[in-house]
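for the writeup, i need someone to sanity check this before i put it in the appendix. the sequnce is what the collaborator sent (i think, or maybe the updated version? ugh). structure was predicted straight from it, no edits. if anything looks off just tell me and ill rerun, i have time this weekend
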Amino acid sequence: MNTLDKTKKIPLKKGWSNDQKTILKSKDSTVLLRVMDASKYQRKIQEIQYLSSLDLFPIQHSQPLSVELIKCKTHFITSYIEGTDLFETLSSLPINQQIHLGLQAGYALKQIHTQIKVQNDGSWEKRYKAKIETKIKSYHECRINFEHDEILIQRIYELMPLLKDRPQAFQHGDYHVGNFVVDLDGNLGILDFDRWDIGNPWEEFNRITWCREKSTVFSSAMIEAYFDFQIPQQFFELMFLYIAVNAIGSLSWAQDFGQEEVDVALHLIDQFDQDTDHFSKIKPSWFKPTRL
């Protein structure tokens, strides 16, 4: 019997991608196999190159191990982090543990942005403004509306000048509680760099609404740790902009996944509305210092 025959294969159904994911468990190791379209092969080679030197100890992250083209499919193997799904458990953890994990999330994100070196080609303002126009157009075409939408769109245009001369960094691309676990040592584990990109590092906070939904202290601690407790005022202005653009674009995206996902998107938008007093305040009401 060869090694492959001794490997236990456990299908993994979580996530929104169309990748076929399988946990491969043998006597000596456990890894995650993702089988995807052949067109992703070069991108996965780049991912391996970018993440090869990333060190977040004691925080674990999904480490790419190998990529192959097999029968016109990309076979991508990463490390597998044993742990508890944070999306399911965060809100039930003791407050001190929520803060601890939030601090780890902020620290790790800062390391991702600073350890991995990329070239800033100065394209961010132009690229992101194009993204804004595309998302607003998609919102108007999807025919699902939310209260105070025109106020939010106006705020987006008011904040757009802040995009000028923003730095760029390697981005995780989907940094939120749905891609975190608590490992067997009680530390944060970071999953799934599949949506990595190059862009303004603060854009990564556009998905903090998912974290805020589960724990406001986790979310506050994440921001504090990212800035070593010295948060620049302009950060909240840009975070508002990035969350707003993500909110505007979320409805057309959610339509492709059914009414349940549309309802989730509308709920998060309504929560954003309430947190900012109908989009009139830049700093969300949920943000509170965790270190007094």
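The chain is about 40% helix and 15% strand. The chain has two domains: 4-80, 84-275.
thx in advance!!
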